[in-house]
Design a protein that fits this description.
Elements lengths: L5 H22 L14 H20 L12 H35 L4 H30 L13
Helix pairs in contact: 1-3, 2-3, 2-4, 3-4
Length: 155
């Protein structure tokens, strides 16, 4: 499986930002207020992935991967990679949505009181999306197999 490319995530975020900005321009008046907690749901997922990354990294560094009773089973690492790849996509899309909304809100702050009130919650969501992408990429990196040392030539 190939590592997640940052440019793919950036492309998804830009697409989501543009699509959201276009939609929000038309439908902002019918949207509910943006709560500070709206984007906060991404934070616990990011924390869990960072903790999982450190656990996996410690096991890989200690060569404790295998099917023994205290070993880390390889299928768990494969599932963690799948989680990381999915989370990176969700984080990038979420960050793009929050960014698109933020661009609209910043342009309307002087004209709409609701736009000024929604800005804080939008910042919280944008930061949560970026943190989730970072945590997912770190988890994916920690799940990589260690490089094999080169074979020593016989002397």
């Amino acid at each position: 499986m190939k590592p997640t490319r940052v440019r793919d995530l950036a492309g998804l975020a830009v697409f989501a930002a543009v699509a959201t900005w276009l939609l929000v321009r038309t439908f902002y008046g019918s949207l509910p207020p943006v709560s500070v907690f709206a984007g906060a749901s991404l934070y616990p997922v990011a924390v869990i992935e960072v903790v999982l990354a450190f656990v996996i990294r410690a096991r890989v560094d200690a060569h404790r991967i295998g099917s023994g009773p205290h070993d880390f089973h390889p299928i768990v690492a494969a599932r963690a990679v799948a989680l990381a790849k999915a989370s990176a996509l969700v984080g990038a899309a979420s960050a793009g949505v929050w960014l698109g909304l933020l661009v609209y809100l910043l342009s309307q702050r002087s004209e709409l009181d609701a736009a000024a009130q929604d800005t804080t919650g939008t910042f919280v969501g944008l930061i949560g999306g970026v943190l989730l992408v970072g945590a997912a990429l770190w988890l994916e990196h920690c799940c990589r197999t260690p490089d094999e040392p080169p074979d020593e030539p016989a002397a």
